[in-house]
Every structure is written in C-alpha cells, then in structure tokens.
Amino acid sequence: MDLRxxxxxLAVAExxxxxxxxxxxxxxxxxxxxxxxxxxxxxDLQLFDRQERRVRLTDEGEVLARHARHILQAVNDAERELHxxxxxxxxxxxxxxxxxxxxxxxxxxxxxxxxxxxxxxxxVVEAGTRKLQQxxxxxxxxxxVIVTDTPPDDxxxxxxxxxxxMAILPRDHPLAHADNVSYDAFFAEELVLFKEGYFHREVIxxxxxxxxxxxxxxxxxxxxxxxxxxxxxxxxxxxxxxxVVADDPTLVARPFSPPVWLDLSLAWRRGHRLSRANQTxxxxxxxxxxxxxxx
Length: 295
Known about the structure:
This is LysR family transcriptional regulator. By secondary structure, this protein is α/β, with parallel strands linked by helices. About 45% of the residues lie in helices and about 25% in strands. It has 3 domains: about 5-85, Arc Repressor Mutant, subunit A, CATH 1.10.10; about 90-160 and about 265-295, Periplasmic binding protein-like II (D-Maltodextrin-Binding Protein, domain 2), CATH 3.40.190; about 160-260, 3-Layer(aba) Sandwich (D-Maltodextrin-Binding Protein, domain 2), CATH 3.40.190.290. Strand 8, helix 9 (about 200-210) and strand 9 form a beta-alpha-beta unit.
C-alpha cells in the first residue's frame, strides 16, 4: 500500500467512479483501475461495490477511506511544513547570549533577522558563558555565545567577534588620562564585577590568579546599567567591552597593558545538524561580523 494507491482510491471514492477519478487525476482510466485492483489484492479485500453504475465503498472500503484521509492529510501537512521551512517562513531559533553582548552587540542582528524572517520564532536566553555551555549540552538552547580561548572539544564553534576588554573608569578618575591601565593599577582599585560564570568575570579572575593578587570586589552585579551607575559615581571601576560605554559621556574606556583580547564564538553541539532556521541565523551573525570588520 503506497501513497499513490491511496490517492487513487480516495479519488474513486469521492468521484463515485473510475472514469471521473481518472479525469480529476489527469491520468488514463485503466491506470486507476489497475491501481485499485492491485490495492485490493494486496489487502485481500474488496473496497468497492461495482454492481451498480456508480461504484460505492464497501464496509472495508469505508474503513480504509477514513484512514487514508488522515494519512494523506498528514503527508500534505508534512510537505507544506517542510516547504515553509525551506522558504524560512516557519521555524524556531533558540540562542543564548551573555547580557553584555545581548544588550550592545546583538540587537541590530536580532532585529535584522526578525525583519527578514518574520515567521521564525526567535527565543533569546540571557546567561553566563558557562551556563550557556551547559544549556547547549542539555538541549535547552540550539546555540550560544561562548569565549573560545580554549574551545570545548564537544562543541562546534564559529568565531564572530574579537574585541578587547577595557578598564572602565569615571571621566574624572586619575587613570582616565592614561594611555593604558596596568594590571597592578587596576587591581589596586575597588572593583565592580559581574558574578562568576560570566566571561568578563572569568577574565578578571584568570588575570588576578596569574598576577598573584586578590581583587578588591566592592560590588557584584549582572545588571550593566547598575554597574555603569556605580562606576560613574566613583564607587569603583570595572572592565567591559568598549561598545558598552561608547555613548556614555561619564565613563572612559582604557585598554589594559598588556591588552586583554576576547574571541567570542557561536557554539552548538558537535555532530548536531543545525536546522535551516538556525543555520540561517548563524550565517547572518557571521555576515554582520564581516561587515563590522570591513566597516
């Protein structure tokens, strides 16, 4: 029993005859008769009562017709959904992004994606990079942004941004007039930092261990507007990407000496085939990254 036979069978049942069914199907009438005869032989059942001029379904035929309608409808639905996905009119993207990038780097990308593919549902999860890796493994998100200084072997990564972590200072801070900020000078200050698990906190923890110092952490917060307010009022300094304070006249970004570079990538489970919607999102992120570098 194949789909073509079921389509021919339903056409005969709905048209009430083999000739009318053949006309609707745009095929020769003998082909319809042969397909129905083969279907009856396969099932070892009589599906039509042919004693009258207008053929009618037998009881067995009625049962098959009910199931055939469901089967063909399901096939049609599947074909339509696959066609829609191919055309990117439907689908879902679940991406995890740390708050710093989610607030200052990704909004134009997310809006561009939404404008191009309004039928695709976009779910954005905010979390630290370590949490995002865990969520990728658990299947809670399709992909996430991670730091790829030491990329995990079980994740496939595509780099989209290389940027410096900067010391962020009030404009009237003595270090604000320096060309750069040494690690010793930075760690001599009271610090405002993200909580553990976020990439910018991990960078500071790593540098402090390498320098053999214990940071003076006055505030821990994951709310970037709060961090900026605390720093601008002189209650500590922090480290962020320069894009975060680019439009804030009360804050100054200065590079570290030696500089601290971050390589950020989109990551997903290695060996996991991305859906067309997810692959399209990755392509857009990489496309925007290329435009950013070239611009």
